[in-house]
Amino acid sequence: MSIADFLPKDVSLTIAMALCAVAFISGTARGFSGFGSALIFMPLASSIAAPRLVAALLLVIDFVAAAPLLPDAWRKADRKATAVIVLGALIGVPVGTYFLSVLDPVTTRWIISCFVAALLLLLLSGWRYRGKDHAWLSVGIGSLSGFCSGLAQTGGPPIVGYWLGRPIAPIVARANIVLFFGASDFFSMVSYATTGLISRESLLLSLIVGPVYALGVAFGASLFGRASEQVFRGICYALIAMAVIFGLPALDGVLR
């Protein structure tokens, strides 16, 4: 059995290798800084292959990569507070998935590019929510993150900005974030499977791209402590900006 046997009929070996390269870069960002993988992967990958396929692909490989973190997060998280935000994801994920399933690929790519650009600005702003806890606000942020995850697996920045601004220990904030995305990814898996976005083709492709993504995560983690986090975060921001630019459908005639 060759690599070609794992490829969807509309995905050539060249496209698969390009997806692997993007996965390695985005995985390196995730391994070092803990964020940025989807914001790099989705604009670029959706310009190479169908957005529906690459969103399902990223969901599968990232869900597998993050699963080992869940038991420790369950023990350390504020589960009651996290449950309120998870309720919002339960609302937002199916809505985002619906739009991913019905919109044409070019429209989806424009939305992804605009979303990622807006989320990059949010990251650059250094925004942290430091106000009081409100159940309606938690549900709203969870819904926004869930919608972004359902549409393009890009739900990280709103949740990170919210939890890191709360007056809680960093270890609890991190556990809350990991636990939230474990639940959000589960909702996405169910929602994607129900709408047919997770297919035999995306699962087979994940067997090729997934190990490369894992290598990127491991490589990025190995760099932690060897390079300035500030410098590397700057590099991640630059990569996200480049992903947005190169992923724009308006540049298809120039770049592809």
From TrEMBL:
Membrane topology according to the record: Multi-pass membrane protein
Coiled coil: none
Gene Ontology cellular component list: plasma membrane
Subcellular compartments: Cell membrane
Transmembrane segments: 12-29, 49-70, 82-103, 109-127, 172-192, 204-225, 231-251
InterPro entries on file: TM_pro_TauE-like, TSUP
Main location: membrane
Annotated keywords: Cell membrane, Membrane, Transmembrane, Transmembrane helix, Transport
Cited Pfam families: TauE
Entry similarity comment: Belongs to the 4-toluene sulfonate uptake permease (TSUP) (TC 2.A.102) family.
The protein, known as: Probable membrane transporter protein
